[in-house]
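Repro:
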Amino acid sequence: MSSVAIDALVRRIDALLPQTQCRRCGYDSCLPYAEAVAHGEAIDRCPPGGDSAIAALAALTGRPVVPLDVSCGKHGPLSIARIDESWCIGCTLCIAACPVDAIVGAAKRMHTVLPALCTGCELCLPPCPVDCIDMVPAGRAWSHADADAARERFAVRNARATGAPRKRAANAKAAALPPKKEAIAAAFARARARRSATGPE
C-alpha cells in the first residue's frame, strides 16, 4: 500500500475513534493508535469506543469483529471528572494533564472541570496530590460531534505546547535587547548627534 493510501486509511480510522485521548490503548493519543491499526495493530484496544468502534474498524479494515481487549479497560457509560473544589489546592497538575483543555483555573486558585468538554479520559486523576477529583456519570452519550471537538482541542493544545520553545526563544531574544528606556534614550542621543554634526539650518 502506498504512503498516500496509508495516510488516507489513517485518517479514516482516526475518524472512527472517540478522540478521548485516554491512552488506554497503549498509545499517546487516538491518532498514533489509528496509525498503528493501519499498520496491523489489533482493533480491539479502545475501551471508550467499545463494541461499536471495533465493529466500525472491522468493517473498514476487513478484519473480523473481536471482543474488546479488557486489559485496556472496560467499556461503559461516559463519565466525566469533577473536582471537589473545597479540597482543591490550585496545584495546576490536573490542568497540565488534561489533553483537551477541559479544566480551568490558575496556580493557587480553585480549578474546575468544564463538563461539556471533558472526555472522561481520567488522566487528571493520578497527578492530583490531594485526591480531590472523582469520575461521575455524564448523563449523556459521547457523540461524533464531541469526538470532532475533542480532536480539535487536542490539536490546539499540542500546537500550543509545540510553540512554547519558539516563544521561549523569542523571549530570550527580546531579553538580549536593551531595555526600552535605554533604547529610546540612545535613539535621542543619536538624533542629537546628527543634528549637531549638520549644524543649524
